[in-house]
Design brief:
single chain; mainly alpha; 2 strands; 44% helix
Length: 68
């Protein structure tokens, strides 16, 4: 079964039933989802691309510090 992108309303309903601290939904194909509070986006931690994104950001920071 293929994953599909969830709407913002579905994401809000999922957060109400599963907690709002971290968004971890294997059925959602979105990498970035709207934040619970305020404006902006957060990551769907069940999506592998979100982990790659974080590793790239950390790698850039570490390389900038080491090779300054």
């Amino acid at each position: 079964m293929a994953k599909r992108r969830w709407t913002n309303e579905e994401v809000d309903a999922y957060r109400k039933t599963h907690g709002a601290l971290f968004y971890y939904n294997k059925e959602d194909a979105n990498v970035f989802v709207p934040k619970t509070f305020g404006f902006g986006f957060t990551l769907n931690w069940a999506h592998p691309l979100s982990w790659v994104t974080i590793l790239v950001i950390i790698g850039v920071i570490v390389s900038r510090v080491m090779f300054k």
